[in-house]
Amino acid sequence: MSVNTLSSKSYKNRILFAACLSSSLVPFMGSSLNLALPHIAREFSMSGITQSWIPTVYLLSTAILQVPFGRLADIWGKRNVFITGLCIFAVTTFLCGFASDGASLIVLRTLQGIGSAMTFSTNVAIISSVFPPKERGTAMGINAATVYVSIAAGPSLGGFITQSLGWEFIFFIAASLATLSLVCSLIVMKEAWVESKGEPFDMKGSVIYGFAVMTLIYGLTVLPRITGFMLIALSTLLFVVFVKTESKEKYPVFKIHLFTGNRIFRMSSAAALVNYAATFPIGFLVSLYLQEVKMMDAQSAGLILIVQPVVQSVLSPFAGKLSDRIQPRRIASAGMALIAVVLFLIAWFITPESSTGVLLVMLGLLGVGFAAFSSPNTNAIMGSVERKNYSMASATTGTVRLMGQAFSMGITTMIISIVIGKQAITPEVSDSLMKVIHITFIIFAVICAFGVYASAMAKDKTA
Question: What does the alpha-carbon distance between residue 378 and residue 265 come to, in Å, rounded to a whole number?
Fold first, then answer.
């Protein structure tokens, strides 16, 4: 394929379509699964804590592996890692639908995370490799809009599927979409995008990093027990060892100088970590609130949850395009500030007696904040690194997102453990569930406020 063909608008658009199709898989399944979790928990007689592991183990395995797979993509090729990940994701997602108990579903969700890590460590890197800087923000905005459309479709479709066909069909439909994405990617992706062919893979650094992430996230899930604090301390030590090891490694799994020598990359990544740490449990907790406190069925709850991602999907392309013209950090900071304010409002004003209209307004405002933050912040991260570091930056973007999500689920699980204990989350514990919601949203609103600072400080490339 000629250079002119590879740089043509039609080729770039085909690549963007394939990347967007793959980007829709996880958000669709995740948002659908939020509505199905109470049904799965009842069918498998799972406690609230065990139930929370269904999303958490997926996040854990994906977070552990994204950085190593990002490095592998440089050596083996972004296309090869991306397509292999789609294959693994499609197979394991299909098998999730046949899970016979909670334990097997959790194991399969762990394996599913491996495929996700391969796909999402390369997705944004492929888009960045194809689109020049002046067009990248628009492409990122379209990709983000696809994600939010999938999130928007997930709750309503998830509620309908769960009630009409059963929760298993959420996985069957997601597996079918993954297969379609795989076929499309095989057809349109002609380049391998190999940046470091022949270089060795840093297995030692990958293992240290993996154990550091695993002990951190697992430690968060068992707080406030002493084991949790011990695991977090061990994780801190392992991250120190990882940084020292990678600083001396000729071909590291992660280039430490991206953080130490690039302020935009460092602060924008920190802002993304804080943003996702403060916002990921919204769907999980609001779904429980609507079904276990307001006594809505899954389909009705899904129609309410759809508001936030619909707003995000409409506004994300505009935010991405705007970030091609003015400094992305300004748009992202404004979005983060709005999210922090709305989280405080939800914590103080949402009660069992609250009207649905109040919740709809707050979810809509959250959608505005997310749209303003997401694609401009990603554009800032990818625009701050050289082409040879796209895979590593893409993997880092995905990893900080998932680390933040896993951190937030760890904190949420800890609060559930303290307030509700090992009881199943049912209408009988609705008062305790409201305490969990209020405490959690206050904590995350405070965390999000710190993220505004991190985003605003992403000014230049110097340390």
Answer: 10
